[in-house]
Amino acid sequence: MLKFVCIQLAKNKAFLNYNIIKLLEFEDIENLISKVDSYSVNSDLFIEIKTCPNTTICSFCNSTNINIKEYKKVKITHSISMTKSIYILFNRRRYKCKTCGKTFYEHDPFTDHKSRLSNLTIMNILEYLKDVNHSFTGASKYYNTSINTVIC
Asked: What is the pTM of this model?
């Protein structure tokens, strides 16, 4: 009986993770995500996402002889809700090549290089601004970001 309960709990957790991934509109990168946790602080919702380690090659010498040097926690604004600020917390791996000694980061599936806004948030802001009645100020309030971020 206990084994059945454990299996059911595992299935329910997997189903819940799938629903969170679907809610965040990450179906296209679902195979890269290994773990999803969420918690709320005041009116902010934080989604901790862990990605699956993949075979990475050195971007400098194309060697596959690499080690994980460290993890850097990245906070990404993912505004898909008007009532809550949603942030993705992503432990980005930093690798060190054993061949050439250089360090580099893994590919971030949520943002473009050095961006703090998710790709989906950027697309939503651009879609919002297509309407001539919407302003940069309105977009910044609606998507929980600054006016300068919307303009740039």
From this structure: 0.72
Which pair of tokens denotes residue 41?
């602080």
Picking from 49, 56, 113, 106, the residue whose alpha carbon sits closest to that of residue 78 is: 49
Block residue for tokens 């309960």: 5
What is the number of other CB atoms lying within 10 angstroms of the CB of residue 47? 20
- Distance (Å, rounded) from C-alpha 106 to C-alpha 66? 12
For residues 130 and 124, the answer to whether their CB atoms sit within 8 Å is no
Per residue in 6-35, pLDDT tens?
A: 233 334 445 556 666 676 766 667 777 778
Taking only the tens place, the pLDDT of each residue in 116-137 is: 888 888 888 899 999 999 999 9
What burial class does residue 90 get, using C-beta atoms within 10 Å of its C-beta: 0-12 exposed, 13-18 middle, 19+ buried? buried
Q: Tell me how far apart the alpha carbons of residues 8 and 122 are, in angstroms, rounded to a whole number.
A: 38
pLDDT at 86: 86
CA dist 108 to 50, 73, 97, 134, Å? Answer: 11, 12, 19, 30
Residue tagged 């977009």 (tokens): 139
User: Using CA atoms, how far apart are residues 60 and 124, in angstroms rounded to an integer?
Assistant: 35
